[in-house]
Amino acid sequence: MASKKQTMAAAAGAAALFGTATFVTSAGSSGNLRATVRSSNRAAAEAPSTSKTGFQLTATAAACVMAAQGRKAVTASKHQVTLTAFENELGVQAPVGFWDPVGFTSDGDVAVFKRRRSVELKHGRISMMATMGYITPEVTGKLPGFLSPSAGLKFADIPNGLAAISKVPVAGWAQIAAYFGFVEFSGGFDDYKSGTPGDYGFKVLTSSDPEEETKKLSAELANGRLAMMAIIGMFFQDGLTGSAWGDWANYTASPLRAFENEMGAQPPFGFWDPVGFTADGDVDAYKRRRQTEIKHGRIAMLATMGYMTPEITGKWPGFLSPSAGLKFEDVPNGLAAISKVPVEGWAQILGWMAFCETSKSQAPGTPGAVGDFGWKLITSDDPVVKERKLASELANGRLAMVAIMGMFFQDGLTGSAFGDFAIKQGSAWLAFENELGVQAPVGFWDPAGFTADGSVENFKRRRQTELKHGRISMLATMGYITPEITGKFPGYLSPSAGLKFADVPNGLAAISKVPAAGWGQILAYMAFCEVSQDQSAGTPAAAGDFGFKVLTSSDPAEKTKKLSAELANGRLAMMAIIGMFFQDGLTGSAWGDWANYTASPLRAFENEMGAQPPFGFWDPVGFTADGDVDAYKRRRQTEIKHGRIAMLATMGYMTPEITGKWPGFLSPSAGLKFEDVPNGLAAISKVPVEGWAQILGWMAFCETSKSQAPGTPGAVGDFGWKLITSDDPVVKERKLASELANGRLAMVAIMGMFFQDGLTGSAFGDFAIKQGSAWLAFENELGVQAPVGFWDPAGFTADGSVENFKRRRQTELKHGRISMLATMGYITPEITGKFPGYLSPSAGLKFADVPNGLAAISKVPAAGWGQILAYMAFCEVSQDQSAGTPAAAGDFGFKVLTSSDPAEKTKKLSAELANGRLAMMAIIGMFFQDGLTGSAWGDWANYTASPLRAFENELGVQAPIGFFDPFGMTKDGDMEAFKRRRATELKNGRVAMLATMGYIVPEYFRFPGFCSPSEGVKFADIPNGLAAISKVPAAGWTQWFLFLGLIEKGVYTYDPTRSPGDFKNAGVLGVPNGSTMVPGEGRNRKLNSELANGRLAMMAIIGMFFQDGLTGSAWGDWAQYTDSPLRAFENELGVQAPVGYWDPMGMSKDGDLKTFRRRREAELKNGRVAMFATIGFITPEYFRFPGYLSPAKELKFSDVPNGLAAFSKVPLTGWIQILIFCGMVDFGLYRADDSRDPGDYENAGILGVPNASGPMSDVEGRKRKLNSELANGRLAMVAITGMLFQNGMFGTTGPAMWGFEA
Predict the structure, then answer these.
(1) Pairing verdict, β 319-321 and 326-327
(2) How far apart are CA 1170 and CA 1273, in angstroms?
(3) Using an 8 Å Cβ cutoff, are 1200 and 1208 in contact?
């Protein structure tokens, strides 16, 4: 026994010694086995002498052991040691390192290793070509023409994959073998002896730089290994199914087929067992694993919710362990809780798990074996429903298992399942978090872990590649879009082939049309771009800078910003082009008609309820891709429920804000009043437990009170409440479709309310409360104006970057200025006419020949576009616009728009921004209308395809607006929906007319006596207007609702065979069974009048409500509304009876006196000009100047027509004189003086005569005269507007205009 123990100890000692030798061997050693062993012996000789005796005993024992066991141990040690000989060779890559499980390198022979490496490279290259040979014909198609003309064999006749072996003729195989031989012999067989294995001088794969060559060959090795695995898999699948990605249904012999219909086999994977656990076909083992999977999934779902719930709802109140004084709030979330939960807590957890595990039999064949523990919320007595629920549970559990592993991983790295990765200081990703392309909100994103090795060189190479791909994608995306918008180039793409640009289709179909020479040019250009600059590490081109300074810059910060923007745009373009390819491949166009894609399972549901314009059937996530009708209906039912809850929740947010809260107590026992419960999320903590129990009980009642099984009315949301549904199937479907649309809107609304409530404390809260918001950094910047304030719904400024904000503001100014010019360019030629003469004398093109609007694009010659672009370039580059310069804020020194006074400049630029925003909206509308009708304000009669045309002759379509539907409610052309809305409009109008009269009549007459004798409420006690709501008793409101119900459902019922608002038993003025109007023109005229009056009444009653709410009366004394900033100007010049101070647009609500004075001065000037213009319309009818207006043009005053027609007759010099005179008056004679009243100029006498009689000494008389001037000017502005309008429409001037003579 002792000898045996000594032998074992000796063996252990030898193992320890040799193991130490193995691990202390230099990592850089590349010698053979002999060199490695010498190193080990040297290390042993240098061991301390203190262990000599022990070492001698150990060596003796080891010698005995090795002698006893032969060379087996020596071989094992030799193998273990020699692995270190090749650990730095080509192909040794993370994470596996040097991997030789079979022991091919155990002899340490370097030459043999290199030979094998050379063979591996060759096999990898062949495999890569073979893999591409499988894939390419499936994607691009096969080569045209014949593979063997003599045998009549076309390339198209050769099947893909293994089946091709029998089709290729002998001569083809001979060519393949000959090519192999050429490749094999031309490079010699000594490459692995004399040089690097695999280096045949082809420098795309290798390089003259040793380090670069090693990297490329290592990458090639890795790709080759992947290709060897891929081609083996393709051969295997091809052999089994007949295709490298064939239908496994063709492989009926697979034991995996035994479980393909089992629970949990779901699309898109189907039955998935990559490790082969079920390869033995053992059903019992399969079911045991399935049961285990369900349990793990359930635990994972609970664990995932356990991570998330405390973050959202907070933790339980009170103590987790009273004896230990441990509160729930003291237990951290996540992995850190493990050390906090006391032992008793873990015992309870384990005890609960044991109870769950043992309380129900789980033997094979029992319900518990498949996860059915009798809890019918997850399972069901119905086998089909139970299987669907358990399958859903399996899928959710699988997701939860992945989620909880990710949470554990992130928690372990950062300290939180949603933690900041910046905490993980050791992460290789942090090395690149400040690199180009790392942008908010994602930050540095590398889910595949490409940068896990921390290699800066690899990162930069990938970034360079990403830039190139992005640029190509941007060009490709524009290449899809541009031909659709601007059309194609004129002329020929290939004159020799007779191929016009117009003949080349857009998108993927172009691939087959472009001739070979075209592809050659494309490839040559790509090659030129690739090789024309040095892109090696450290050069500007390596970072995407090819010297094209529009995209880059000599300023490093500016260059980084532009390249970052380019990266972001390129990423978007890569996503866009992939989507375009996908849609083009399916439908034949990048934005093609999905109706062309008849194979789509989505088509199965395109006529289902809820598929509504403009989206139609919309399922971007592909939930319905399996075409399962039952699953679709279940999701639709769920959507209806969620929508109903969201609608109630949305109303629950809004109603208390408008109507106030219920009186009395929510919980008398707790002394909690309804008014004590805050609105929104804050209510969660106030509602008592009993309240939540009632809410949950009501939800459970709603859920279980009606059968919702497939095929029942409840399955489609019909619970018998006929206000939302109907006995009429068509009406019911329409109502449910409307409910679906409203529910979807409510789901979006309630999420927004939750978000805003969480940030600001109210669903309509003041964002100023959210002090941490980056938006607050810009709330005082230029362009932030009432009533919207700072508005950035897309979150462009969420990063708080002042530089980016200013750059965007500068861009906005430019776009606004261009839009203002473009808008004026649409309007001006229509009013003033076009320039005389030629736009292009050489082309014989007159200004008059260029149409207005979009049609001009095709008429302006190339030289004209060149001038436009040159002018734009001049404006862009003529001033320094870098950060901090005046031009960066839009100040180009043109002092009409800016000013040397900073406050004035800010005001003007703010006004310009507002005008520019309006112009951007206007020009988009003009483009849209021009494209549809041929003119920016064109005759809609030209747009015959408009569904709005279907209703242009219906009741209620009246001059001057005609048919008016700005929201497009009737664009579907649905006559039934139109009539329903018209009937609703009539009802609303009738109610509004009654309500308006109800406001007016009590001011002059009220009923005598009591409104409610029992309550002692007299009619005289009820105030007029909104204040009456709180005075009318509940019984009164009940009478109202009953009366409305009687009218709606009893007396006047809707009849689709009659006109909207025309009820069978309703007479004139709505008297039941009274006299009716005789059909005809008179009847239509009266109904149209009712509609118009009803519309007016709806506007009136809204105004009355508004004024009543502000002042306490529908025409209340504004003196009661003391908070109004309008009060600041009620004693100013121009405030006259009977209107008083009138500012319906609210221009003066900011209370800015300076702005008010400026507007008043402008009003005076406009009024004075309007008075002159009005007199100018009238006077020439009775008197004209004698003689010539322009002797040079021989134009007499009598030749100039009156009115608008004069514009075209006054010569250019006349207009110049008018403009000079206006400028002299405005900037010379009569300059504004802040110390004087608006319109009162120092050197202007009575009637504006320069330096005439001085100011009037009678103060009151002066004020009265100036007020008279303002009133006359206002009248003149209305008069001249009417004159211009009438003159423009009818051409009338003079007495005919104001009706004195025919």
Answers:
(1) antiparallel
(2) 7
(3) no
pLDDT tens per residue across span 302-311: 999 998 888 8
Q: 456-486 and 556-587 are packed helices; what angle lies between their axes, rounded to 10 degrees?
A: 60
Residue 860 and residue 838: Cα distance in Å, rounded? 12
**Per-residue pLDDT at 1074:** 61
pLDDT in tens, 510-549: 888 888 888 889 999 988 988 888 888 778 887 777 777 6
Q: Which of 47-56, 422-431, 665-674, 1274-1283 has the highest mean pLDDT?
A: 1274-1283
Which phi and psi angles does 400 have, rounded to 5°? Answer: -65, -35
Distance CA 464, CA 458 (A): 10
Question: Which residues neighbour 544 within 8 Å (Cβ) at sequence distance 6 or greater?
Answer: 463, 464, 467, 468, 551, 552, 563, 566
3-state helix, strand, coil in the chain (%, to 5): 60, 5, 35
Pick the closest to residue 89 from 102, 80, 98, 100 (CA basis): 98
Residue ranges in 1179-1248 assigned as alpha helix (H): 1212-1224
Residue 619: phi and psi, rounded to 5, are -145, 75
Residues ≥6 apart with Cβ < 8 Å to 436: 463, 543, 560, 563, 564, 567
Nearest Cα neighbor of 650 from 760, 767, 752 is 752
Instruction: For residue 72, give the 3-state DSSP assignment.
Output: helix
Which of 348, 479, 510, 336 is CA-nearest to residue 412? 336
Query: Could you write out the DSSP letters of every residue in 860-905?
Result: S-HHHHHHHHHHHHHHHHSS--STTSGGGGT--S-TTTS-SSHHHH
Question: How large is the average pLDDT for residues 1253-1267?
Answer: 72
Residue 499 Ramachandran class (φ > 0 left, ψ -120 to 50 alpha, else beta):
beta
Tell me the β-bridge partners of 494.
Answer: 499
Left (φ > 0), alpha (ψ -120 to 50) or beta: where does 430 sit?
A: alpha
Residue spans of alpha helices (H) in 325-455: 343-358, 383-414
Q: From CA 634, how far away is CA 94, in angstroms rounded?
A: 48
CA distance 211 to 201: 15
- And the tokens for 642? 């969620």
Q: Tell me how far the alpha carbon of residue 876 is from its chain's centroid.
A: 31
1247: its two tokens: 């009637």
The dihedral over CA atoms of 1252, 1258, 1263, 1268, expressed in degrees to the nearest 10, equals -70
Contacts of 498 (CB under 8 A, 6+ apart): 492
**Nearest-CA neighbor of 1275 among 1127, 1180, 1179, 1136?**
1136
Q: Kindly state the average pLDDT of the residues 809-838.
A: 88
Pick 792 or 304 by higher pLDDT. Answer: 304
| 364-396 pLDDT per residue, tens | 888 877 777 776 666 677 787 777 787 888 889
d(CA 974, CA 947): 9
Alpha-carbon gap, residue 789 to 780, rounded angstroms? 9
pLDDT, averaged across the chain: 78
Give the pLDDT confidence score for residue 1038 in this predicted structure: 87
The residue among 990, 1149, 993, 1109 whose CA lies nearest residue 1061 is 990
The count of other CB atoms within 10 Å of the CB of residue 1102 is: 11
In one letter, which amino acid is 582? F
Indicate the pLDDT class of residue 105, thresholds 50, 70 and 90: confident
Question: How many CA atoms within 13 Å lie on the side-chain side of 238?
Answer: 17
Structure tokens at 369: 């074996």
Torsions phi, psi for 958 (to 5 deg): -130, 155
pLDDT given for residue 738 in this prediction: 85
In Å, what is the CA distance from 789 to each residue of 670, 768, 807, 811? Answer: 43, 11, 19, 19
Query: Which tens digits make up the pLDDT trace of 286-345?
Result: 888 888 888 899 999 999 999 888 887 778 888 888 888 888 888 888 888 888 888 888
